[in-house]
Amino acid sequence: MSARVDHDLVIIGSGFSGVGMAIAAKAAGRDYLVLEKADEIGGTWRDNRYPGCACDVPSHLYSFSFEPNPYWSRAYATADEIQDYLLFCVEKYGIREQVRFDSTVQQMTYDDGLGAWHLSVASSAGEIQHIVAGAVVLGVGALHDPVLPDIPGIEHYAGEVMHTAAWDVNATMFGKKVGIIGTGCSAVQAIPHLAEDATHLTVFQRTPVWVLPKLDPEFPEWLIDAYEKRPWLTKLHRARIKAYNEVRSLAFTKQPALLKAMSKVALHHMHSAVKDPELREKLTPSYTMGCKRITMSNTYFPTLARDDVTLETSSITGADATGLITADGTHHTLDAVVFATGFDVAGSYRHLDVTGLQGHRLADDWDAGIDSFYGVTVPHYPNLFFLLGPNTGLGHTSVLLMIEAQIRLIDTLLDERDKRGVTAVAVRPQIVPAHMAQIARRSDDTVWKSGGCNSWYLDERGENRSLWPESVIAYERKLARPDFVDYEFTGSAEF
């Protein structure tokens, strides 16, 4: 690398993606720097602190394969426990000293002559620093940029307002009349906890959600000891979970009959807790299971059946100083309003001011429906890599499996770039359209497009730009042995 380059690799974000990439970069002997906008390590699990926040992927699979954790306390870990695991990995692998906190990337511009990226980085105090990076990895994540609904008059509401993605951990709903908007994954987890404290909870539902029972036992001490003393048991358990979840992927992509069986389980689960036929009707989805993300809870339906909980299905038309107004004319007096309205999954990328070759701007390309190669590389942006980029999300298993496959690919491409003595590597623009056409064909057969719902899985045009429409094993296999003819290696390393 030229002396004009400050770091061989700059990693943006310090969630699982960023931490995993940093660990790999250190192992490879690269000069790397991690830029984190907040004041602590973490992404999704640092920012999402709402009551009941937990993972819907089994704990032993929601961890790095190279750092198994025998000490998980239960089948599905809470947000606190996952954040503790991530902090443990940071300390064990000694990467904290390479993390620069309070550092928000404002602008990135590719220098074709240098084969490097110029980054403008701002602190919360307004200080600006310029960094030149030989390569950049975007590990900015998708589940932290909250979406707020457009409710006329909400600016006049005088009560407490919070989004589940920006929860004040010191806040309490005790003794308050609380309204929560949304019934997605975050809401399903939060609603039972909010109901315990509130004098009355009103749940504003736009679309019913499919909810399966959650088999979430606490692990006994003897089992934790067994996992600690016999690591092969942990690996075996992890492999079993992965294999089971891969079978589930068939339900979304190739075997819809499996979804029918799962739907019957979900309906029985709901009917066993909700005896009121009118409430049952309101809670029964009209779309195919899997069209939206499937949720799991043992307490959601019993909570909605309580006398001090109201399910409101009339749409919200406005707000005033004391509450919300619904389309049927009802005024709901509330002391607090909670938005459980999800995330702008593309917002992290749309908000980045990134300019690549020939004046290409990432935000504009994203709005046009960005085309990527396996979600890791994008035409016209050399030495820029994405972790959990387009079409690499999952609806059935752990995204950490995807992250690790992507990190290995990035390592391979950077190694090959350096081996060839050049400064830049980028996917060939000519091969990406055929790849995206294959993604589109496979997506057409999935429940996400044919299930009869609107979800964040699909973009404004109804195209799948979020999820991987095959098995994780297929993805891992394809990234493990990249064909270098698919990439351009350019630029001289001599200056």
From TrEMBL:
Coiled-coil regions, chain positions: none
PANTHER family assigned to the protein according to its UniProt record, in alphabetical order: FAD_NAD(P)-BINDING DOMAIN-CONTAINING PROTEIN-RELATED, L-ORNITHINE N(5)-MONOOXYGENASE-RELATED
Protein name: Cation diffusion facilitator CzcD-associated flavoprotein CzcO
Organism, as annotated: Rudaeicoccus suwonensis
